[in-house]
Amino acid sequence: MRLRLLALALLGCLGLGLAAGCANPFKAPLSPEQDVLGAARATLRAVEEGQWATADEQYGRLVAAWRAIHRRVYLNADEGDIRAFEETLSELRAYLRHREQTDALATLYRLETLWHDIAKF
Question: What is the annotated signal peptide range for this record (predicted)?
Fold first, then answer.
């Protein structure tokens, strides 16, 4: 009995260690339509290349991915982080509309950082 408890405790510690080192499962896309980070990076590439029509398309994909996944992310994220992410998305829309490359790039890098910080374990 004592040996079983010890084994169970060791397995529990191992499981906690593995869970702490894993990425947040709530942010993982379940389909390509939910890949927020992939859409943000595709938008970034388009802006870097000055392909504004593609950047607008990718921005639409980014917003759709966020809408598809945001409820899961809300489960364990700070409200301030969510608000900052959504405000940054809105700023990006304005920069893309006015073709402001430098500001759009800075905003996309900020979005990527915010995404990594949201609901970090």
Answer: 1-19
C-alpha–C-alpha distance, residues 47 and 105, integer Å: 7
Which residue in this structure is represented by tokens 């500001």? 103
Dihedral sign of CA atoms 16, 22, 24, 30 in order? negative
Which range marks the domain in which residue 76 is found?
A: 25-117
Contact status, residue 100 vs residue 28, Cβ threshold 8 Å: no
Q: Which pTM was predicted?
A: 0.76
| Tokens encoding 92 | 């990006």
CA angle 118-61-44, nearest 5°? 70
- What are the pLDDT digits (tens) for 64-117? 999 999 888 888 888 899 999 999 999 999 999 999 999 999 999 999 999 998
- Residue 6 belongs to some domain of the structure: no
